[in-house]
Design brief:
Order of helices and strands: EHHEEHHEEEEEEHHEHEHHEHHHH
Number of strands: 12
Shape: flat
Structural class: alpha+beta
Strand content: 15-25%
Helix content: 25-40%
Distance between the termini: 108 Å
Length: 417
């Protein structure tokens, strides 16, 4: 099956060389991004970026995504709709729903945009094919004022799509048409993290002393041989802390900066917090437990769902509403992630919440069993109210009878005539 069916063009223009990379190789402009070329792909080399992107993408992609039909205030899952299977089970014949959503959310978190080609049959969406965001260009046609999506394939072909053919999830944006890349907005921070890790790698590669000079009272006839002999014995982490024997008046002078003076470890911890701040991820979610306690981790996890995952979830749900449903279907259908599993507290807290709902008449036994992934029971759909624990429907009937009961007027006493 062809991924692109029409309007294919050959891109004859060669890709321009990356000037930033050229400057970096040539050693110029090294004060930008801490001397490191930062891109969306290379940023995943920073463990904190990789962990933040991974936990957000996997958390949302693993949530159940349902197409809901609402008629007369009654909401049911629209399992008979073709879009339900695309959202919940298989995005296309090659990709599961989880893998597709994971790729889309990773694109959102790195590039600020997620794209997919829509495949329709008889007016309904039957498949979604993921498109790489770095190969997509979005612009507005000067003549028609319509949005055009131009995609460059792996072979260099240009394919143009109308807005109706593309599923587009937009991240944080200033124009509402295309999202901004969080990586590019924070490239200075990520570049500093790269530089810090590079410094640490070089420091440990050179042993306990990152650098120094050998001073001799006379002229060294073969300095290269002396340097090679010294490095062979003392360079590298395996040769750290060895005792050096210096002959013929040779003296060793360190010129390296010790890590405690450069606050190397403190800098790395600060950069970890900076990256967590970019993605709004609690540090304990990426295994930074310095300030985490058993009493606040549960609340931080709930805040992670409310303040970190929820904006991305709403963006995805509204993109489905806009791109995958027709104008007629929007009155009946909408997509919704089920986040109840992430918001569940410990067993004791859940049971207390169920008891309150059960005693106040807005949860039935089967409602509770469904939330706990248990099968329904007979007569489990009866709602009870507090007090005598009678059926809520029976209590309502009793109240209505009391209010409509007619009281007989009292007879007046007849006086003596």
């Amino acid at each position: 099956m062809r991924l692109f069916g029409r309007r294919e063009k050959r891109n004859t223009a060669d890709n321009n060389s990356n000037q930033k990379l050229v400057d970096f190789i040539n050693g110029t402009d090294i004060d930008i991004n801490a001397g490191v070329n930062v891109s969306e792909e290379s940023s995943l080399g920073v463990t904190a970026v990789y962990a933040c992107v991974k936990i957000i993408a996997e958390s949302i992609a693993s949530l159940p995504l349902h197409l809901i039909r609402e008629t007369s205030g009654i909401r049911t899952r629209a399992r008979d709709h073709p879009l339900y299977g695309v959202l919940h089970d298989l995005a296309n014949e090659e990709t599961t729903s989880l893998n597709f959503r994971e790729a889309c959310l990773s694109s959102l978190l790195l590039w600020g945009n997620a794209y997919a080609r829509i495949e329709r049959s008889n007016g309904h969406v039957t498949a979604l094919w993921f498109l790489k965001p770095q190969r997509m260009e979005v612009y507005r046609d000067a003549n028609t004022s319509k949005l055009i999506y131009r995609y460059t394939t792996e072979t260099g072909q240009l394919v143009e799509f109308d807005a109706q053919e593309i599923f587009h999830v937009i991240g944080f944006s200033l124009d509402g048409l295309k999202g901004m890349s969080p990586i590019q907005q924070a490239k200075q921070t990520i570049g500093l993290t790269f530089a810090t890790e590079e410094y640490g790698a070089k420091f440990f590669a050179n042993g306990a002393r990152p650098g120094g000079v050998l001073e001799t009272p006379g002229v060294v006839k073969d300095p290269e041989r002396l340097r090679a002999s010294w490095n062979a014995q003392f360079q590298g982490s395996r040769n750290s802390h060895k005792i050096a024997v210096l002959e013929e008046g040779i003296k060793y002078h360190s010129i390296g900066i010790p890590p405690d003076e450069a606050q190397f470890l403190e800098t790395r911890k600060f950069q970890l917090s900076e990256i967590c701040r970019i993605f709004r991820v609690p540090p304990h979610m990426i295994a930074d437990l310095d300030r985490a306690t058993f009493s606040n981790i549960e609340h931080q996890s709930i805040e992670f769902v409310q303040h970190t995952l929820r904006p991305w979830i709403v963006r995805y749900e509204q993109a489905i509403y806009k791109c995958l449903l027709s104008k007629e279907e929007r009155h009946l259908y909408y997509a919704k992630f089920n986040v109840d599993g992430l918001l569940r507290g410990d067993y004791h807290s859940r049971m207390q919440g169920y008891a309150i709902g059960r005693q106040n008449g807005w949860l039935s036994a089967n409602d509770i069993r469904e939330l706990e992934d248990m099968n329904p029971i007979k007569d489990g759909d009866i709602y009870l109210v507090n007090g005598n624990m009678v059926p809520a429907t029976g209590r309502q009937v009793q109240e209505e009878k009391k209010s409509t009961r007619v009281k007989k007027p009292k007879e007046e006493k007849k006086g003596d005539g």
